[in-house]
Structure formats: C-alpha cells, structure tokens
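User: I'm curious whether this sequence folds into something compact or stays loose and floppy. Could you predict its structure so I can see for myself?
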Amino acid sequence: MRIVGGKFSGRRFNPPAGIPARPTTDVAKEGLFNTLENMMEIDGIRTCDIFGGTGSISYELASRGAADLTLIERDHVSILFIKKTAETLGITPFMRIIKGDVFKFMKQHQEPYDFIFAGPPYALETIDDLPILVFEMKMLKTNGIFVLEHTPRNDYQQHPAFVRMKNYGTTVFSFFTQK
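Assistant: Here's the prediction. I'll summarize afterward.
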C-alpha cells in the first residue's frame, strides 16, 4: 500500500495478513484524488472515511492537508494497523478512529463533513442505503462531496445528488454533492 500524493507521497505501508479489507488500488486512488482535487480544496477540510479498512484514503487526505479526519472501522486488527500508521505519519492529533458499525454511526453523527468516502465491501447487501443515509442524515456540508466506491453492477446516476462517475475497471467511484 502506497500514499500516492501530497506531503507523504511515496510512503509505503504493509497491512498485516488477516485484515478483512480490499484496499483501493494505487491507480484508482490516483484517479480519485485527481478528480477530487479538481472539485474541492482539500487543505483544512473535515473528512469522514466510513468502512476505513486499512486507512488508505484517510492517509491520502492527511497527506493533502485535511485537518480533521474521522475514520469508522469495526475490525480490531485493522484499527491497530491504522493507529500505528497514523502515529508513524504524525497525524494522530487530528485523526479520530471510531470502532463500530458504520450504519449506527451514520444515524448518530453530530456535525456535517466537507468530504465523506465510503469504500464498503463490494458484496455489502445494504450498499444502496449509503447515499440515501448520507443525505437523509444531513452528513455533508453545503457543497460537500460524498464518494462511494463500488463495482460496475451498481448504478447511482438517478440519485438526485449524483454528480459524476469514474470507472477504473472493477472499481467505480460515484460522486455526489450536497447542494
């Protein structure tokens, strides 16, 4: 796993065996951040990485200057890896790691975010609920962006907040915005 941009660009980390996560590929991550940086200024924003996995997206956000990182993950081994990596990068002071269920968190969140990323397991049966919940629960600030990573079999183009889709083979990013 590699950080592809920003001040930590090129740093590599090796998640331990047994982490039940599918890290976003470097090519897809690079494409995601190229698109995102053309849509918003990342420096200083408040972010939420749901289904945090290895923490890869949060490290990219921190590398590009995000000031407030919240990461939701339920796997204990993943959380230990994320904490260790955050400490190595020196981003622990502005990273909040929450161990728990993503859907419970989404229904109880306190303040809206500038950017939310969801990289759920592709086989998640309730994946279609994610964009619905983000907007029903008012999780985004005005002009905030939500990105959902999914496979080509999912299509969110009819969602009222849908903006664009980027396809990287088996990885698709759908972008939504809070108007």
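Summary: The two ends are 34 Å apart (CA to CA). The CA atoms of residues 74 and 100 lie 5 Å apart.
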